[in-house]
Amino acid sequence: MNKKQYLFTMIVIIVLSVGLIVTNAIWGYLEWIWVFVIAMLGYMYLRYRLSTPLQTFSNKFNMMVDFDLDVEGAEQLAYHGMKNAPTKNVEQLYALYYGMAQYYCGKYEDAIKTFHLLELKHLNIVYHVLVFAFTAYAAFELGDKEEFGQALDRIKNLQPRISGRYKPFVASYVEVLEALNNSEVAPEAFKEVVEKHFSNSDGYISTKLTYHYRLAQYYRLMNDTLEMDKNLAFVIANGKSHHTALQAAKMFQNSVNVEDYVIREEAPEEVVPAPDVIEAEIITETEDAEKDTSEKEDKE
Question: Which of 82, 111, 146, 283 is deepest in the core (most CB within 10 A)?
Answer without folding.
Answer: 111
